[in-house]
Design brief:
It is built from 19 helices and 10 strands. The chain is an alpha/beta fold. The chain folds into 2 domains: 321 residues, Up-down Bundle (ABC transporter transmembrane region fold); 177 residues, P-loop containing nucleotide triphosphate hydrolases (Rossmann fold), CATH 3.40.50.300. The structure holds adenosine-5'-triphosphate (ATP). Pfam families: ABC_tran. It is a multi-pass membrane protein. InterPro entries: AAA+_ATPase, ABC1_TM_dom, ABC1_TM_sf, ABC_transporter-like_ATP-bd, ABC_transporter-like_CS, P-loop_NTPase, Type_1_exporter.
């Protein structure tokens, strides 16, 4: 009982939200659509009544009033013609409302997604599942729920008016019809519940299918896929996902077939019983020809109205569930900037104080009591083997996650008390897994500072700093060349897109990070991993110049790039195990010295070393 009440509450909440959404998206069209719905609901009864009156009049033979018969005939024809006109206008209004609602829903959904703070939602498979359902809902659910509301209204008006008509002819029959309709409705609700449960259960299957599909068409995946011959394997897995979905859907459809067959039998039986009652009444002279016609039209009308609603129930049940996911995502809390303290320019430095962090509450600790200080005008280098936690530390600094224990302090203020967006505006960063946007070259750089997205002079300045200006200027449309091999420009004159090399993309990412001028903290996570040796040397000199007077955190596996940092921290399994200047750490002979010597020895050529040795001896 309480479950049914909960279900009803859920239905009311969802349908209410869909109706409110439609009202906001297209108020005028909604009012007209409602009026037309009420009109179409009464068409059957009006048409039936006019036909009955016409037949009764004609049945009077020579006594018939020809003027009245003619008026009734014209009236019945007008009702049919009018209902067709209403249908056409309704279709147009449905289009207007559908577009209004789709735009509104997509805008609201992705405004919310864009406003979500941090990364944890985006690294949660359950969130992606919900988002998929919500997007599905954004496309169809409000419309289907509104169609359901309209079908219910139409059904109520049709059944109400026609039942009144049938009641006049045969009261028991009216009851029978309503009962049969009610049973069919309940059965359909059960069927729709099965379908909803199936849709939710199949979300991961469809997401895997999408994933294999993306791998089959993605240009980057195509390289490995061709080289390792992965095409058949991916295809097989994609088809297997689809087959799984198809098998499960067909199983539910088969289950529903029995229900459907029982419903058809019930409908036919009710119609047969009704016809029998009326035919007998006519034979016994209790009913006239018009009554028979009216009754048969009413039976067909009521069953048609119920069937119309039944068809909507299936979609509506599914929509209630998917739309619920949309409403849940819309209701997710986002950070309220007004609740946070403004961020002052950095004067002393950023401090990590005994920071502990793990990605999942049950997962292993990734950072275990990290403490380090990045002075406002100093540089810090972070060293550590793969998986030590370096990039995780960067994510915490950018407030993409918050520490579980300990604090990150911005001039002594816990960053959790600060407005995250304002904090991010005071810093810039290049990430190890930087983005390559399929935009123009200028936009790829300008995105680093949206206020200067069109500032070509500034864009070229930072491109020069990142030593990519010459290359970009030489592209077919210079900085306005699209950097894409998968999208084409919407503008016909635009030359075909081009792609860059890995190192060139990295320079572009670096230029993007340099776009922001008024920043206090510069975070560079492997900014030169893809650069050739000469370029790396130049870039680091440029970065050192550019970063002067700011707090800098530099991460690199190329240890030579870090040696000039004021302080170096060695991170191992989430702990700082050494710290000091390059010279101090080399003298100490610990992990840093071991890693540095190991890397340096890889660059030693014995012939050069032995020549150097001979010179020393001489
Ligand atoms: N989003 C994530 N969810 C769960 N675990 C993660 C996530 N990102 C990283 N990890 C785990 O956290 C640990 C530290 O990863 P991190 O990327 O910080 O290392 P790193 O020092 O930057 O390594 P590398 O030198 O390879 O870039 C790893 O064991 C990794 O598996």
């Amino acid at each position: 009982m309480s479950e049914a009440r909960g279900g009803l509450r859920e239905l009311t909440r969802t349908v209410g939200a869909a109706v409110a959404l439609q009202w906001r998206a297209a108020p005028l069209a909604s009012v007209f659509a409602l009026l037309l719905t009420l009109c179409t609901g009464s068409v059957a009864a009006a048409g039936g009544w006019l036909t009955k009156a016409l037949l009764d009049e004609l049945g009077r033979g020579a006594l018939a009033d020809s003027q009245r018969a003619l008026t009734l005939a014209v009236g019945a024809a007008a009702v049919v013609g009018g209902s067709m006109a209403i249908l056409n206008v309704s279709e147009y209004l449905t289009g207007v409302i559908r577009w209004g609602v789709t735009l509104e829903v997509e805008r609201r959904l992705f405004t919310k997604v864009a406003a979500l703070e941090g990364l944890h939602h985006f690294e949660d498979p359950a969130f992606h599942g919900r988002l998929r359902l919500a997007e599905e809902a954004a496309r169809d659910a409000p419309q289907q729920l509104i169609e359901f509301v309209k079908a219910t209204l139409r059904m109520l008006v049709t059944v109400g008016t026609l039942s009144a008509v049938v009641l006049l002819v045969s009261p028991p029959m009216a009851l029978l019809l309503l009962l049969a309709g009610g049973v069919a409705l309940l059965a359909q609700l059960v069927r729709s519940r099965w379908l909803v449960e199936l849709a939710v259960a199949l979300v991961p299957t469809y997401r895997w299918r999408d994933f294999y599909h993306a791998l089959l068409v993605d240009v980057r995946a195509a390289k490995e896929s061709r080289l390792f011959g992965l095409g058949d394997l991916l295809l097989e897995r994609m088809v297997a996902s689809l087959r799984k979905a198809a098998d499960r859907e067909l199983a539910v459809t088969r289950k529903g077939l029995a229900v459907q067959a029982a419903l058809s039998l019930l409908t036919a039986a009710v119609a047969a019983v009704g016809s029998f009652i009326v035919a007998r009444g006519a034979l016994q002279g209790r009913l006239q020809l018009g009554d028979v016609s009216l009754f048969l039209a009413a039976v067909a009308g009521i069953q048609g109205a119920f069937n119309g609603l039944l068809a909507q129930v299936e979609f509506a049940g599914r929509s209630v569930q998917t739309f619920k996911h949309y409403l849940d995502i819309i209701a997710l809390p986002v950070h309220a900037p007004e609740a946070s303290r403004p961020v002052a320019p950095l004067r002393h430095g950023v401090e990590l104080r005994d920071v502990w962090f793990r990605y999942d509450a049950q997962g292993p600790w990734v950072l275990r009591g990290v403490s380090l200080f990045i002075p406002a005008a100093g540089s810090v280098g972070l060293v550590g083997v793969n998986g030590a936690g370096k990039s995780t530390l960067v994510k915490l600094l950018c407030r993409l996650y918050d520490a579980e224990r300990g604090q990150i302090l911005w001039d002594g203020v816990d960053v959790r008390e600060l407005d995250a967006r304002a904090l991010r505006r005071r810093m810039t960063a290049t990430f190890q897994d930087f983005m390559t946007y399929d935009f123009t070259a200028a936009e790829n750089i300008g995105l680093g500072d949206l206020d200067r997205l069109k500032d070509e002079a500034r864009i070229r300045d930072v491109a020069r700093l990142a030593e990519i200006d010459e290359k970009l200027a030489s592209l077919p449309a210079g900085y306005h060349t699209l950097l894409s091999r998968v999208l084409e420009g919407e503008d016909e004159d635009m030359p075909a897109g081009v792609s860059l090399s890995g190192g060139q993309w990295q320079r572009l990412a670096l230029a993007r990070a340099l776009m922001r001028q008024d920043v206090d903290l510069l975070v560079l996570d492997e900014p030169s991993s893809g650069l050739d040796a000469a370029a790396e040397f130049h870039i680091h000199r440029t970065l050192a110049r550019h970063g002067e007077g700011r707090a800098r955190l530099l991460i690199s596996h190329r240890m030579s790039a870090l040696r000039s940092a004021d302080t170096l921290f060695v991170l191992s399994e989430g702990r700082i195990i050494e710290q000091g200047s390059h010279d101090a750490l080399m003298t100490a002979g610990g992990e840093y010295a071991r890693l540095f010597t190991l890397q340096a020895s890889g660059y030693q050529d014995e012939r050069v070393a032995s020549r150097a040795g001979q010179k020393e001896v001489a």
